[in-house]
Amino acid sequence: MDKALALASAAQANVSPNPAVGCVITNSKGEVIGQGQTQPVGGPHAEIMAIRDAAARGHSLVGATAYVTLEPCSHHGRTGPCCDALIAAGIRRVVASIADPNPLVAGEGFARLRAAGMEVHVGPGGAESRELNIGFFSRMIRKTPWLRMKVAASIDGKTALDNGVSQWITSEAARTDGHAWRARASAVLTGVGTVLEDNPLLDVRLVESGRQPHLVIVDSQLQTPPEARLFLPGRSVWIYAGARSNPEREAALKARGATLTHLPNPNGKVDLAAMLADLARREINELHVEAGHKLNGSLMRDGLVDELLVYLAPKFIGSGMGMASHVHAEGPLTELAGALPLEFRSVEMLGPDLRIVARASGR
Ligand code: AOF
Ligand code: ZN
Description:
16 strands; diaminohydroxyphosphoribosylaminopyrimidine deaminase activity; metal-binding; zinc
């Protein structure tokens, strides 16, 4: 199963909106005779790749065991059911890490395998598989993407100087690592403030990647300039606006290929929770946020942040902007008990910087 998990992990950045799955098939002596991993969307699943691999290597699958990091699917999606392929191949036993939370599968895959007389064992690697596919599980179960907020800050928590200068607080090593996290996300989210200030690309370029995440912009008043650099060939840009319409600007942005959605809250700004639900409907699993202190603050205040990816540079800035502002709707905190509770998941050195992953308590 460790090998199957490693295959799944290697597929992770290429398979959104599908979960990354690995599959290893062994013969009755326990020798590996086939292996595979999920292919980019529309392509074969891990089990099919492993069955094909074994066949290409001339092995019979009769009586074999398949180790797979997710319940084999039982439905006809973009591809056919893996269950049927495993049964047809003559496999005798399936060891799976965890049930598929997709309501179209959700136990039906295991039931079908058992009905065909197969031995099914569920559990090994379950936590790891779920972690690899945390966005997929979030979308299927909570109907909202897994929201990971990336912040680069000085050791005193500043993300920019008072004059807005923020490039570059952290090192090249930290920025490259940031691109690896962008690459595994289904989409990158930013705010129009960042677009106007930095004219960023927000694409994946510092690491190899077979696909570019979609780009989502929170733009209440439709201020995104149609000439912004972020309109890259072949990349989808989704802009969420508030109540105000601006037909001329909308036409210019659509001409650049943007998809526009008005989702106003009662204040006429973007309803962020509704936007996340909409992004889940658009099959966004992990949403990687790189925004300024205002949008960060709104996401925090509304309890929408699942995870923080914080790069800390060994620089002391002293003045300047914090990671997020207006986090507390009631105004500045007067009691520490009101602080948003997090749990540290990991801490690592990247060149001269630190990377800290923290998760909202209970997520
Ligand atoms: C598997 N093995 O490797 C993966 C699975 O549209 P489709 O046909 O590609 O199906 C996508 C669904 O299949 C996805 O939502 C999830 O439930 C499951 N993913 N299942 O047996 C795999 N990636
Ligand atoms: Zn499948």
